[in-house]
Amino acid sequence: MNQIPDDARLRLRAFVNDDQINDVLKIIRPELAQQSKITGSDILGQLASILEHYDRDRLLRDDLRDLETHRNNLSSALAATKKLRRLIKQEPLILRLLASSGCGWLAYEYDGSARAVRVHAAPDSEARVAALNEALELMESNASWLLSSPDILRRRRLMAEAEEGAHLSLERRKIWEPVILLYYDCKKRVGISRSGPVQKILRILHEGLGLKPPKAESVLRAIKDFRHFVEEHGRPAASPADSIYSAAIAAGRISCHPGTLVRNGLQRECK
User: Fold this and answer.
1) What residue spans define the domains of the chain?
2) What's the pTM?
3) SS3 of 121, please?
4) Does the pLDDT value for residue 164 go beyond 80?
């Protein structure tokens, strides 16, 4: 175990301790035929990525209000932005308000030929006014677009995936399903059991994350859904960035990412 490169293990230590890491490695050790493609370091790196993605989305979920509240807040922000833009246009001392120190200085020059007064201010004040106007214009334009259709905001939220898969828990989508795929890649099979290896791995990861143990029946349902998908369609075509095989490709141990590839209109399987 100590021969595994530190980088992957250190990333994983942010979530689980060394004993838990070693327990997971004992369970998920690749079959002999897979050991030329998948190393212990690959497994740790993939587990670290899985937990990092989960933690990121958990934090984003906690920061996001429900969709309706978000829509109402955005509507209020849009109205406030429009009002502020109008007030700025009407404010004769806006250059002073955005001066870097004190109230800045202004110089007025009367242009007799145009019968107009030219206002001169410190360059930093003028730059700030221009930047503020540009920012408010962008806010108004983008907020208007997000609110222009009931579906746009939902799709563009940081947690759009969670909104679309609201019937599935974040833990299932971001931990269980990727771990099941990882186990499948290492073992080439996933058994249906309430106390099997996948269940044990997930209990270890939940414990490390400070989560309640996963319900065995819920995990079992996820395993059955995965097996059904594999029977119908073959291995899920996860992107190389999300796959245990990305490290093997980078190291030259395999040539491409397993799954259906489409090139020149033809499909082929990468083994």
Assistant:
1) 6-63+166-238, 67-157
2) 0.62
3) strand
4) no
